[in-house]
Sequence to fold (848 residues):
Amino acid sequence: MKKSILLYTCLSFLFPDAFTQDFGDNDRKQNGTRIYGKVIDASSKKGIEAASIQLFTFYRNSADSSIRDTLAGGMLTRPNGDFSIENLPTSDSIRIEITAIGYQDHMQVLMLGTTELRERDLGNIALEIDPKFLSAVTVVGQKPALELGVDRKTFNVDKSIVSTGGTAIDVMKNIPSVSVDVEGNVTLRNNTPQIFVDGLPTILTLDQIPSENIERVELFTNPSAKFDASSRGGIINIILKKNRKMGLNGIVSAGAGHPDILGGNVTLNLREGKFNFFVNGSYNQSGGRAKGSTERINKKQDTVVDYFNQDAWTERLRKFGSVRFGFDLFADNRNTITLAQNFFRGNSTGREEQEQEYLNINQVMERSGERINFGSSINTRSNTQLSYKYKFVKPGKEFTTDINFNTGKADDGSDIMNAYYLPDGTPFGAPVIVRNEGMSKNKQFTIQSDFVNPLGEDAKLEAGIRSYVNNFSSYFNSYSLDSGGETKLPLSNNYAMREMVNAIYVTYTNKIKTFGYQLGARFEHSDFTGELIDSSLKFGYEYPSSFKNIFDALFPSVFLSKELSEGTEIQLNYTRRIRRPNFWHLNPFVNINDPVNLEQGNPQLRPEYTNSIEFNLSRTYNTGNFLTAIYFQNNQRDITRYSDTITTELYEKLNNAAIDPNAILNTFINAHATNRLGMEITWQQSIGKYFDITPSADLQYRKVVVKDYDLSNQGFNWEAQLIANYRIATKKKSLFNKLSFQLMAEYESQEVTPQGKNLEQWVVDFALRKDFLKGNKASFTFNINDVFNSRRYGNIYDTDNFYQESYRRRNVRGFRVVLTYRFGKTDFNLFRRNNERGGDDEDNGNEQ
Fold:
């Protein structure tokens, strides 16, 4: 109770008008009035826990002499349904309102006597089951894998059996409009989206989040002003599972497969009284040996000089483990506090073998090379989240505050050996050995508050503030080993950065008959500072840097919608967003893992801005739904990948690292603009009771203009996906009863880039699941990822200095089997103090 009073007092300072009412001349003094009773189920006669009890007293308004009421007290019923509210203010009559999820509301008016000390026993108050709730439960039970909305798409992970036992990357591969490349990077409509977990930033990578921990994934292709402005590529919000069922319940799963696949997950939840406790532990391991290839033609003034070929085999073993725990405190009907803690630890080891061929202009081999790279990394992550929600008396009106703190640390090391040979097998120079070591630390802090106030049946005002701070530091040392000694290479660097973004937003939503609209504006001030500590080189940006550039910090949004008929709606929206360069975009460190394809960040990058217009048509009917979107995006200063042959100066600095003199340096630049015009079609159709399909397609025309480098390219690309589900359900007992099948197939065409194109790719995944035991408490899942071993990522670079075609793979075809068991006990009671004294809560109610 003291905690509730403290929270109430704090909020009263923030929102005094929301907590202050004029009671006129009626001075409401506290006395000994007490009202108590018990809320029970009308059918089972058992007590209903956590039913909401609210008491309202009547008073006369001194301004107009009208009779009004005000909330005088309230509570949630105890596990056996009992409630008791004391010290109520003086009043001749009190209205009591009782609500419980799944039950019809109850309301009655009590006439109190005039005695000084008054008590009223209401006895057993029986609530009837709400028929609407029963029908709603039926709908939820048939929830589709993909729910379509005009402002978002929601992908329910429980329906994706091909990702069972995997990670968030496996989940993303099966969502329409989403693509995952060889490094696990995600794109949405060929743009880089903002990744959130439960609506907040995270430092976890997608392969560090088990699929069993994910409830659903929300896709926002054109987010409104309510959301983070640095989401010009959209937002992918991963919602973790939250279980608040009464009693003790949980899920246990274990799986294994090939290559080197092993995993397990345990989730426990206990809700009793005002507390809800939860804990989750998971382990995920995967491996495999993947092949990559590179073929290059080196040119000088468009004349062929020589050729280079490379084959690479990469063998990796990744292990990740995490623990997440916390509690919800339902302090009273209106105050809820949630505290969650997540710890993560992962390590990976890898061995890469490269075979190289250097050919002259006549394609005769002049020398060959062998490169072996041993690497390992250990990283730890921690996430602490504190959330508070206050619900006002007015329905739908609420205030929330979230505090999120992320920390992380990574240690990396590798040993690289490179040797060259003449065609006859004799050594071509001495072997080169390089040792690398590095460490990085990351701290992120986010605090945000949101206020929602319904202004009528269709009108709503939303406002909020947010502050985000990200501190990152890293060091990397590279040494050349020669005759037992070590020489530090110029590759080494010591880097630190700090990013801060402060934001405030407001949106207003309303509806006039069948026409709806939402107007919003967001203001964000961003400041980025980076420093190369060893050289004292500083760089960064601030937006806006002065008042005259205030528009750089303003991000408006306009959403217009019109209901054409029942189930059919159109929407037109506009937003302005920003994309800020991340650490890897800016870090000038040169990655030499591949001696002919180097990577380096660009500290001179600047944020890019996007103007996005989108038109949607959605149609819902009895057996399915259909969504068409036509969109246009204008990206100003688009952050674009750029490749060129290594400079002589950089080659001389890296000569001891066994770098090829014709190596390609891949970096990032700000293009003048990139324009995208596209159309996306998603169709979800049920065919009978047990079969459904979800085909989707995205057609896009893209034009890239890079004025500073006299580069431009344009072209058409498309991708298509099909998800098919079939379930066997019979009344007779059968081995095949409750057996589900899922097939996912995806194709992506070639896509233009400023200096070439990305190659086409396709993949097929398959899975089956068998439910068994009473209530489908157990299930067995078998899935095959990449059935035809076809998933690979390739690109072509065509410049004045070289033509290169290459492909890489992250994983190879794999299969896994997973066994899952669900359990629960609604009447579980951790604190059996009453029973220990010989009492029985269920029998101590008020009988009439």
In short: Residues 2-14 form the longest helix (13 residues). Residues 1-31, 134-142, 833-848 have pLDDT under 50 and may be disordered. The longest strand covers residues 303-330.
